[in-house]
Design the sequence.
């Protein structure tokens, strides 16, 4: 079998094709990816020259299995796929009747596109929605079991076991047996003097950890109606008592133009609060839940003060390098952003509130490797500690990218926790808060519920020896791939999370999962990540003056210590940072060389210093 993967020239998405190519090449198959000329030809198959170019590409590479990827408009995707199939079926040489060239055709795209393909062609063509495991993917691509590498099969066992656990849990509706905790009030419970540390301490005494945090916010075009609906949602969530911490899904305008006249500017989604009065109303609706909202994207310290005084923030989240011009989320340059965030951190330290670095996964979204993911969190943590922050909420987004193996997430999470907890002392405490990946969940609702239970099991395995770990879980609702979560869906997502934590220990023992999560290979992988991260940090500390300041943190990014090959904006300013290649190797994101092999940390440092010379 020889595989060929093509996509429309209009579709910029390439990660899925790259991952499929790596998987198949690991099985020993030859894989060809369409170049820009072939991609453009796919969009113009009615042109005889375009089809001839495509036809010649198939014949020259002797492709027998053809995959077509289209992740834009579903109707356009089906139309383009239909033209492709028609042309192939009616070609004297490419037709499957000849059994020489194209024997199988596959389609990968958005869930709606896959549904339309299945409706149009029945089961004639295998479809890929993007929620398949590596083993599922290879089997759907007709790879025989005996050709799937041992490393993939063995490392898939852990993910398959967790999925089977989630499947059993959901099929038996165990989540429906979970009820709210009886919340015995402590002195400042639900008042303006309430504090995350008080809530954590009380929950620990009552054996009610972890606390649950959920990102909440409806979307309506009309501002007043959106605020009214959010008020209703908060009251329902408060009354049901499942949720501990509300994270307000602030609209883009609330973050970028708080207190200004929005005129006819579109809301763009999220909760569109625009005054201190509205913030006070949100807090009153949320009581006794703790509440927080994202920072402003300008006047950051000023907005942090407004949020604190009106919401009594559970904690503040700042992204240092992100939420500015570089990602289209704000008007500031990266340098200005860092400067304003440092000033905001000084205020947060002054009012003795926790800080969450909303950072590592934003680097991961732009293609950074696992080591840089860890180091970016460490730099944020040490910067915060030096400023005087006493409590750090360490958010850790799992399944990012979603092709990451579960065992790799364990190795990465343990290395992350270890290196950041190296900073702990009497005046600095780390609070662990894992979450599922942003694009992890399947558009199949039942499968998404199973995935939520499975990823919760992963969270329980990160620090299995620590009784109260994690202390907080950022619960991502199972409807994430389809629509915003209503209070009922939020509550059921929390029930699934707590049910998984309650029942996993028995499953864990029965299926000897401890042998997997305590294996020598996993321990060695985590140790390697920890050591590589430390080498990178020591090099930064040696070569960048005043590293833990806005100027120092800017130089880290500018010099290219953090690879971001998928960065869209400001590529010229951060040319050293985009001048890298990363890829998935055995379920891990690594910096790779020209031959697709993992680049050593020493070679990376040599390249960084040569680029900056």
Sequence:
């Amino acid at each position: 079998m020889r595989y060929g993967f093509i996509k429309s020239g209009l579709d910029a998405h390439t990660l899925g094709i790259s991952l499929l190519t790596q998987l198949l090449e690991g099985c020993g198959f030859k894989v060809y990816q369409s170049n820009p000329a072939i991609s453009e030809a796919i969009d113009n198959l009615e042109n005889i020259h375009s089809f001839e170019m495509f036809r010649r590409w198939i014949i020259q590479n002797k492709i027998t299995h053809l995959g077509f990827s289209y992740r834009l408009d579903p109707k356009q995707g089906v139309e383009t796929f239909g033209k492709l199939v028609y042309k192939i079926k009616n070609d004297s040489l490419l037709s499957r009747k000849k059994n020489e060239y194209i024997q199988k055709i596959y389609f990968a795209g958005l869930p709606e596109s896959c549904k339309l393909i299945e409706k149009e062609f029945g089961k004639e063509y295998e479809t890929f929605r993007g929620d398949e495991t590596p083993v599922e993917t290879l089997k759907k691509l007709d790879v025989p079991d005996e050709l799937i590498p041992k490393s993939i099969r063995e490392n898939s066992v852990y993910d398959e076991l967790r999925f089977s656990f989630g499947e059993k849990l959901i099929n038996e509706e165990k989540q429906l047996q979970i009820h709210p905790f009886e919340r015995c009030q402590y002195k400042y419970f639900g008042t303006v003097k309430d504090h995350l540390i008080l809530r954590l301490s009380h929950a620990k005494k009552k054996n009610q950890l972890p606390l649950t945090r959920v990102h909440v916010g409806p979307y309506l075009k009309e501002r007043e109606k959106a605020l009214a609906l959010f008020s209703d949602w908060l009251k329902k969530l408060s009354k049901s008592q499942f949720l501990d911490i509300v994270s307000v899904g602030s609209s883009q305008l609330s973050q970028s133009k708080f207190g200004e006249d929005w005129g006819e500017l579109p809301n763009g989604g999220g909760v569109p609060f625009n005054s201190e009065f509205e913030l006070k109303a949100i807090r009153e609706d949320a009581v006794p839940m703790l509440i927080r909202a994202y920072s402003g994207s300008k006047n950051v310290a000023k907005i942090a003060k407004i949020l604190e005084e009106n919401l009594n923030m559970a904690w503040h989240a700042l992204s240092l390098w992100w939420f500015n011009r570089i990602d289209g989320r704000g008007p500031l340059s990266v340098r200005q952003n860092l400067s304003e965030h440092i000033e905001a951190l000084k205020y947060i330290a002054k009012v003795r509130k926790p800080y969450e670095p909303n950072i590592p996964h934003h680097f991961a979204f732009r293609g950074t490797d696992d080591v840089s993911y860890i180091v970016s969190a460490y730099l944020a943590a040490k910067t915060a500690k030096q400023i005087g922050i006493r409590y750090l909420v360490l958010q850790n987004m799992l399944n990012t990218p979603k092709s990451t193996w579960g065992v790799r997430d364990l190795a990465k999470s343990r290395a992350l926790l270890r290196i950041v907890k190296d900073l702990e002392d009497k005046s600095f405490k780390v609070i662990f808060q894992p979450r599922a990946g942003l694009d992890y969940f399947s558009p199949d609702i039942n499968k998404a519920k199973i995935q939520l239970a499975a990823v919760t099991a992963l969270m329980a395995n990160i620090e299995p020896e620590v009784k109260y770990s994690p202390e907080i879980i950022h619960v991502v609702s199972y409807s994430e791939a389809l629509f915003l979560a209503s209070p009922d869906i939020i509550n059921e997502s929390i029930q699934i999370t707590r049910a998984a934590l309650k029942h996993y220990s028995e499953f864990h023992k029965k299926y000897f999962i401890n042998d997997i999560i305590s294996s020598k290979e996993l321990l060695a992988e985590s140790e390697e990540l920890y050591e590589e991260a430390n080498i990178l940090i020591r090099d930064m500390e040696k070569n960048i003056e005043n590293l833990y300041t806005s100027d120092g943190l800017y130089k880290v990014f500018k010099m290219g210590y953090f690879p971001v090959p998928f960065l869209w904006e400001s590529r010229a300013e951060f040319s050293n940072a985009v001048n890298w290649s990363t890829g998935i190797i055995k379920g891990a994101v690594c910096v790779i060389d020209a031959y697709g092999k993992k680049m050593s940390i020493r070679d990376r440092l040599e390249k960084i210093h040569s680029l900056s010379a």
